[in-house]
Amino acid sequence: MLIKSKIMNKLSFFKRFFNFLAVFSLFVTLSNCGGVPEFAKPSKTQKDVPINAKERARQNVEEGRGLSIRGALGRDRATTYEFSTSNPLWRASLELIDFIPLSTVDYSGGIIITDWYSDETNSDESIKITIRFLSNEVQSNSIKIIVHNKKCRSTENCKINEIDSKIKQELRRSILTKAAQLEIDSKKKKK
């Protein structure tokens, strides 16, 4: 019995050893198929990363870390990138309502919503402005402005209504004027 037990232990040891060797060989073989893994590659130094945002974006697309519609369609030419700072309507709106606390600002969704705002003279009445961007073109139908008015008689008794006031028309006119000026300035810089 003792001899049989020793033989079984040795067989068990060799069986585990060969299983380990097979798994190790498989791991080594598969790890060599993909070349050098990402974690083993040297990272970029600060001097390898371009300072200009457009150059950085272009480098990311060339290295496969970004997405280019033209590249996906097989027409890989110069790529254009749209940022909120390049949209004159967006910039003009933020500059004109910068004195009001903002509740929601979503460039990709095309909406700016302010918090309730009241001036110091009448604390029982406040307004909330919503600006929706329907297009990037500087036109009167590119933005929709909604103004809500809240009148409170006490802290629990408030009434909220959408109003069509002078504020709405003045804000639209001011945004469009400012956006047109920003667009003209941007075109002058490019020339």
What would you note in describing this structure?
By secondary structure, the protein is of the alpha+beta class. The protein has 3 domains: 1-36; 42-72, no CATH class; 86-190, 2-Layer Sandwich (Alpha-D-Glucose-1,6-Bisphosphate, Chain A, domain 4), CATH 3.30.530. 41% of the residues lie in helices and 18% in strands. It is built from 5 helices and 5 strands. The protein has helices at 2-31, 53-62, 69-72, 88-96, 166-190; strands at residues 102-106, 111-114, 125-133, 143-152, 158-163. It has a 5-stranded antiparallel beta sheet, covered by helices on one side. Strand 4 (143-152) and strand 5 (158-163) form a beta hairpin. The longest helix is centred in the first third of the chain and has 30 residues, at 2-31. It starts with a helix and ends with a helix.
Summarize this, please?
This protein is 41% helix and 18% strand. The mean pLDDT is 76.
Descriptive tags:
single chain; 191 residues; alpha+beta; Alpha-D-Glucose-1,6-Bisphosphate, Chain A, domain 4; 3 domains; five-stranded antiparallel sheet; 5 helices; 5 strands
